[in-house]
Amino acid sequence: MRSTRVSAEAFDETLKKELNGTNKVFVLFFGTELPETDESWCPDCVIADPLVRKALLPVENSVLIEAAVGSRAEWRNASSNPYRSRTDFTIPAIPTLYKWTTSGAGERLVEEECADIEKLNAFVNSA
């Protein structure tokens, strides 16, 4: 597994680049890290992050695109959040882990599903 962090501005370009080839692309939307702790402000994201990485590690040709959604205030202000205002996919809560294909956003795990080892392993292994 390889991971890459993207800004909202570089999101589409990075997806396009990673989808060219045989990569299995996963996108994890999570709350931005707090400077004082280097951990997300979202407790569910803190729990899910290492589990997602561990599940993806053995998946050949997998790419994890890390998309921080901003601070708690930026996330809650849906009208101005660059990810929540998209019409081609939705992020109902964070963390959200998507499988992405050339057709766009596919299956997803949301919130506590991202920390459910059985669901997570089944999700990444069906890619």
Automatic annotation (TrEMBL):
This is Thioredoxin domain-containing protein. Transmembrane segments: none annotated. Residues 8-123 form the Thioredoxin domain. One of its GO terms (cellular component) is cytosol. Belongs to the thioredoxin family. One of its GO terms (molecular function) is protein-disulfide reductase [NAD(P)H] activity. InterPro entries: Thioredoxin-like_sf (IPR036249), TXNDC17-like (IPR045108), TXNDC17_dom (IPR010357).
